[in-house]
Amino acid sequence: MRLTAQITTESLARFVGGEAEIQNQFEDYLFRAEIADIKVDHGSLVIKFAWCAKNRGGPFGGEKGPSPDWDNETNTDYSASLEIYNPSDLGDGRMTFQSPITHETVVLFPADDSKMNPERIHDFPEHLKDKQTQKWREWEASR
Hints:
The protein contains 2 helices and 9 strands. By secondary structure, the chain is mainly β. The longest helix is centred in the C-terminal third of the chain and has 17 residues. 28% of the residues are buried.
């Protein structure tokens, strides 16, 4: 049985409050975002982000590589067809979805895992900054 058959809205609930990292070496992008809602809808992985940031460099392994600087991204919606994305368990509660067709990789971090430092994100929404800073500090202290 393919892991895709086991991906349900219920199995993804542990990622709410966690973060997602989305990258593509061919299209040269890297995003990081906090997961506000995640579900499977009509065969697609659908994520609503509380905030989203785009790296000023590029993806890991890309020509430029990632930059320490990020820009706030206003698009907070994401979806990917589970027909063309292969899910894998990375261990430590993390999950990845990779597509050989789009060349995109999506890594999901559970709520108690890796956090983005909002000080690195230019134009980060002020109303979210204190909460994200606290999450980042707690994660840093736990490492």
